[in-house]
Design a protein that fits this description.
Blueprint (H helix, E strand, L loop, with lengths): L6 E6 L24 H17 L3 E7 L12 H13 L4 E5 L7 H7 L5 E9 L3 H8 L5 H13 L3 E8 L3 H5 L1 H18 L2 E6 L7 H7 L8 H7 L9 E4 L17 E2 L3 H4 L2 H12 L9 E6 L10 H10 L8 E7 L2 E4 L11 E2 L7 H21 L6 E4 L6 H12 L6 E3 L3 H9 L9 H15 L5
Parallel strand pairs: 1-2, 2-3, 3-4, 4-5, 5-6, 6-7, 8-12, 9-10, 9-13, 13-14
Antiparallel strand pairs: 10-11
Amino acid sequence: MTANQKRTVHIILERGKCAWGQCYFCGWGKKRVEVSVDELKRRFEGFIKKHVSRGGIGRLKIFSSGSFLDEEQFPKDFVKWIVEIAEKHDIDEVVIESRPEFISKEKLELLRSGKVKITVAMGLELADDEFLAKYYKKGFKVEDYLRAVKLLRKYGFGVRVYVLVNGHPILYREPELQKRLLEKTMKLTLEIADSIVIINAYPHVQSDLWEDWIKGEWKPLDEKQFYELVREWKDNPKVELDFSNYNFIPKFPRSKRIFLKGVGHDYIVHPYYEVWQDYFIRFYKPPQGKNYVLFLPCAYRKPYTRSRTWRAILNVISGYPFFKKLHLIAVSSPGVIPYEYVKYYPFNAYDWPEWLETEEIKKEYIEVTKERVKRYVNAHKEHYNHYFAYFRPDSETIKAIKMAFEELKLSDKLTVILDNETYNQIVKEEFKPAVAHPLAIGKLRSTLKSKLQFEKS
């Protein structure tokens, strides 16, 4: 088997808890995982056999949410066993993670191999003692890190450095400081490392940074911001750029989830809604092939797909060819909500009692909703060809949507489906919800058919 046929694979082996567990930006290090060594061996052997059968392993990365060389997490015998398995299956390189305080001659003896290259990855983050102590709370100094690197080099081990950007609100607020610290860090790490990974910070649950994100004091860098910051090193063969090190979406632990019931300012711009709206604008990518938007109202029953209104809508349009081209998007007090996320918290756990609205609250709702629609449409304008809006003609939401398109000068791309004449007929019957009435649904179906039935897929 040639080296070219082998692949790079990674496995997460978590046990116990990170010995430090105080880094400002890290939630993984605060986790405790109870699992036996025998269970870890079973998982690891199964993983290795699967990938060896698929063509072999060139490079194996082991992520551990802590330190692989911490005996409290991984006993000595287990560490030696991992190396033996790697040798047995002809793995070229194994990359393990550790904090620098666990790098010692005794620990490195456990990793020695005549057949497998062993690389140790360590998180330096930024090469500045004051910042490491005061803001990142790393628990070591740059000299401690360099001592570990020197020992690794002495005994022939590879060195992989993790560099973290935007891991604290002060760096988000002061981009010039971030730039200076990154330049200082890269100058050092390019001298000492075999490989460097520049990582974009994301909000880990249980981290202090997560709390800053919810409070609006910090935001992750989007793709454009990140690559602009690191462009000086994008072509360096030693450097890997990790914009999205996991599938980031706004997540809320159960301990932080509350049912959001009420009207007014606090329930329009609630922090949970705000972080999602930012996500939909800066990180979200609309589904391929769905180039027509159908804006829809919310419903009392959550998720919306279980409501009478949404079931009536889906029943009447889902069988047509044009349905595959439609991207359903709810617009309500939490903001603009793409269909894929209507079952996510907090969109499945809120209520806006309309009967409690005042004229002042309605006015604020229209203004906030207008801006949210504008931002979403502007962020994804290259993706969509046309927009349809299906709401009561007297609703605050349709007023906000129309104003948004007027201000964007895109009114010609918006079709408002339910007209006053049809709506007034429904009102006379006192039918609720009006948008689930057969007349309204018929109007929706006929409009979409006439506009989209013969559009090319």
